[in-house]
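Example 3.2
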Amino acid sequence: MKIGTHDGTFHCDEALAVYMLKLLPRYKDASIIRTRNPQLLKECDIVVDVGAEYDPSRHRYDHHQRGFMETLSPKHVTKLSSAGLIYKHFGKEVIQELSQNTLSPSDNEMIFQKVYKSFIEALDGIDNGISQYPDDVAPAYSINSDLSSRVARLNPRWNQDEKNLDERFQKAMNLAGMEFVETIDSLIHSWIPARDVVKAAYDSRNEVHPSGAIMKLTQFTTWKEHLSEIEGDRPTVLFVLYQDTAGSWRVQCVSVGNSFQSRLPLPEPWRGIRDEELSRLINIDGCIFVHASGFIGGAKSYESVLKMASLALDQNLKNDAKKQKVQDSLLGQ
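Structure, written as tokens:
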């Protein structure tokens, strides 16, 4: 088997594209042919980032030709580079291979979409010269430590007599490929299990409080992104309860989107108060603290932290009722 790509200066997109292919059993031992010679490329089983052809049926995956506007799917707008093209056609197979065939189709699809959005799409955009911002918005600072920049620095300097370009390309493949593999490994072994924990907590939230607005994690994990996706267009959870590493419990307010604003912060009179003073103030034993901004609080036991969340919810409902009563009164006048 032969994998063809162009010679000369290399970029992150074809380095990663070739690395992804060599993760698959049928390309694992394939030789890498770096050339622009059409006759040599014609002999290759698969060609990426060179040849001015995009034809999956013949395994030709270039993106430089006039009129090429391929994206990952109709839902996406970023034009693909060779990394995105190989990922589009082989990504799910690569993910399944890295998982040792342990992923369900739905989990594979979630990881496929997640990796494109968080990893591959940036490489596509950079290689195709697509700005992150509108042209009239000047970035506040420059970034030269991204993966594409680090791969580019593996090329010889302009004034350096370097003949081992294939060795340098292999280093570029390993650099891009290892970060790609680590990203998928983290999603398989951390992100998916975290989602399972959050989904179970969300489904059983009415057992914690009849309102369904208070959710209890059976073990602490990253939960914000998962909760947002699970809720979809129907946000219902206001407080998340979990045990910290010291054995006490936290009540954390769910934020509005990715902002620092809470859907419902803990009551203002509680904020910045600690320990016995806080316990006396709200008549709940074992309180530890409420943050000055009201986004999080703590107590020594689950029972106490649940009472804190329930009381905060009840006070908010009472305040809403008072507001409605005043509004009704004013309308009556």
